[in-house]
Every structure is written in structure tokens, then in C-alpha cells.
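Students often ask why inverse folding is considered easier than folding. One informal answer: many sequences map to the same fold, so there is more than one right answer. In these notes we will look at a single instance of the problem. The structure comes first.
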């Protein structure tokens, strides 16, 4: 089986252990360019471009990344509800043509923080947001694929003669990624997503989620691909990797104790079910499946993917390939030392992942 490897770029250097999401220039163009090129050279397939109600525009960032890399694709995070799906379809298709075709994908996040939604004027409740996402994805896909104008009248959107002359540049189209673990999210993603994104949970829990999602998708006559997000921590020896993990936890703890650090104050500001699931796992123990580490997860609270696999490059690759055996074919990996980790992963981790995946048969 082939696998897809995703990274994540940002417009400035910041993580739990370095930089700041708030201080300094919001857009460091030189850093973004260097960061994107590092992913391209390391062998990543795409990079996720995140979304926040106070951050830079993802489509503009995506255009810069595509213009400064040779083959790297983008996965643009997007919150339905602020831009019409017909317009988003035209934006995606246009960007797909301008970048050579096949390099553009979209990730739908319905919003895990009520406060952040309201910054953009959205006061819809959790389940309503997911219902809106379902209708958005339905109209988006139809706009990208329809050969003739169409009408649509739903709860959230109404169109007459909707049509886009700009279609995806390749037959593969624009892949639709989706994330969310609540019951409302499962209902949406299993009907409309191409790739369902999961946080880095233990193998047993991940297998259970995949089985549930596959069964629900089958009810709608659909199949899904699955993505797993993790924060690998690698070193030349296993002991050195665990020592590095301890150092990352120590620095995260130090920054949390600093009340003047606005980055630290922002952690844990989400009420998403997926993030809360990680907190439940971290509360039981901090290491699962030998090397899946929740040390930072336990410190920062619910706030996105924070678990990571620890070991040598080959040990981490072997651990991730166990997920591949149960159906994961996409890995989103991002580091605590963002730029340096990407360069390091390109030397051993990514080649080991691809070589191992080629030897694994397709899951039943």
C-alpha cells in the first residue's frame, strides 16, 4: 500500500517549546518559505495550513507555499459557515490550476471552540455547526463536479443556477478531509469526507474508531481513508529520544508556569470531543503501546494533537506502520522543533515509513 505523509506549516516559528504565537511579526515570509521548502525536500506529500479566527488567511498562505515549492501539495483548513461553498469551490479549483494540478485539498473543521467561532461572528451551537458542515460539503462537491447549473435549497444555503466553470485540474479532483469525533461529527464525516482525520490515540482505540467509522460509512454506500496525527520525537538512540521528550515536557511546564506567556495561556482553549478523548488517555497513563507519549498532552490540556511517538527513526516508523496495518494510510506529523524536525525526518523517518508501507498488504 502507498501512504500519504502530511506536515504542517506556519507563518512564524512557534510551538509549545519555542517562539510565540502572539509576539513578533505574524507573517514571517522568509520563515514560511524556508519551512515549506524543507517539507518539499524531505519528501512530504502535503502540508496542512491551519485555521484560527485571529490568524492569517489560509488560501493566501497556500498560494505562497505552492509558488515556492516544486511538488508539495497543500491541505487548507477551513471552517464552513463564513464563505459560501460555491465560492470556496471556485477558489480551490482556480488554485489547483495555477499550481499545476493535484496539489490542492481542503480540510473541514466545524469548530472546537465556541469562543473562537464567535470571533468571526458565528454563534451556532455544536450540532448546528456540524449540520451546516454537511450541507456545505455536499454543495462544495457538487459545484466541483457538476457539468450543468443546479439549484439547491437547504437549511443553511440556497442557490439558483449554481455553477463553476473552474473545475479541478486533474481527474482526482479536490480531496475533502474532515475531522471530529462527536456523534454529530461522525454522521457528517462518514457521509461526505474522503479522508477522516484522527488524533494520535493508542492502537486499540484507533482500531475501534476506524471500525465504527467504516461501518457508518458503509450504511451510506461509502468507503473512507483515514489519517493519524502524531508528534514524533526521534533521536539516534531510544534513550536519547526519551531524554528529548523529557526536555520538551520540562520546557512546556516552564512556559505554563510563566503567567506572562500568552502562548501558554492559550493552550487548552477548546471543547472538542477529539481533544477531550486525548485528555482521557493521558489521565490513564502517559505512555501507551510502548512509545506513544502523552507527556505534553497532560500538561497543556485539550487543544489539538499533542501526543507523539518516541524512539529512533526506525522504531517510530515501525510504530506508525502498525496503524497502517489497521487501515491508516495518511500520517500528519509535526514537530515540537518545527523546522529542525522536518529536516531530520526527511533523512530517515520518511524513507523508513515509505519502505515499510510498501511491504504491508491492503487491510481487509
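Output (designed amino acids):
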Amino acid at each position: 500500500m502507498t501512504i500519504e505523509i502530511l506536515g504542517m506549516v506556519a507563518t512564524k516559528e512557534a510551538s509549545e517549546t519555542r517562539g510565540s504565537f502572539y509576539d513578533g511579526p505574524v507573517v514571517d515570509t522568509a520563515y514560511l518559505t524556508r519551512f515549506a521548502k524543507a517539507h518539499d525536500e524531505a519528501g512530504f506529500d502535503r502540508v496542512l495550513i491551519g485555521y484560527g479566527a485571529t490568524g492569517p488567511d489560509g488560501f493566501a498562505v497556500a498560494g505562497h507555499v505552492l509558488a515556492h515549492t516544486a511538488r508539495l501539495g497543500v491541505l487548507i483548513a477551513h471552517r464552513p459557515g463564513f464563505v459560501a461553498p460555491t465560492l470556496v469551490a471556485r477558489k480551490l479549483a482556480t488554485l489547483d490550476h495555477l499550481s499545476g494540478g493535484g496539489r490542492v485539498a481542503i480540510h473541514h473543521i466545524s469548530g472546537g471552540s465556541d469562543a473562537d467561532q464567535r470571533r468571526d461572528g458565528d454563534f451556532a451551537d455544536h450540532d448546528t455547526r456540524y449540520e451546516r458542515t454537511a450541507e456545505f460539503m455536499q454543495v462544495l462537491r457538487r459545484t466541483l463536479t457538476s457539468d450543468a447549473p443546479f439549484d439547491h435549497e437547504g437549511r443553511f444555503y440556497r442557490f439558483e443556477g449554481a455553477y463553476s466553470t473552474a473545475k479541478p485540474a486533474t481527474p482526482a479532483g479536490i480531496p475533502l478531509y474532515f475531522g471530529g469525533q462527536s456523534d454529530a461529527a461522525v454522521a457528517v464525516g462518514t457521509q461526505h469526507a474522503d479522508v477522516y482525520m484522527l488524533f494520535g490515540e493508542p492502537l486499540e482505540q484507533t482500531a475501534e474508531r476506524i471500525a465504527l467509522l467504516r461501518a457508518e460509512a458503509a450504511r451510506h454506500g461509502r468507503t473512507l481513508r483515514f489519517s493519524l496525527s502524531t508528534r514524533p520525537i526521534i533521536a539516534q538512540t531510544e534513550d536519547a529520544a526519551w531524554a528529548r521528550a523529557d526536555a520538551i515536557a520540562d520546557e512546556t511546564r516552564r512556559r505554563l508556569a510563566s503567567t506572562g506567556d500568552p502562548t501558554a495561556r492559550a493552550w487548552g482553549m477548546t471543547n472538542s470531543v477529539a481533544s477531550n478523548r486525548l485528555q482521557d488517555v493521558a489521565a490513564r497513563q502517559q505512555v501507551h503501546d510502548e512509545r506513544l507519549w502523552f507527556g505534553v498532552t497532560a500538561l497543556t490540556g485539550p487543544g489539538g494533537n499533542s501526543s507523539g511517538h518516541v524512539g529512533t527513526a526506525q522504531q517510530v516508523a515501525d510504530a506508525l506502520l502498525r496503524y497502517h496495518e489497521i487501515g491508516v494510510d495518511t500520517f500528519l506529523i509535526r514537530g515540537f522543533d518545527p523546522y529542525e524536525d522536518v529536516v531530520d525526518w526527511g533523512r530517515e523517518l520518511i524513507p523508513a515509513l515509505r519502505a515499510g508501507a510498501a511491504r504491508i498488504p491492503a487491510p481487509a
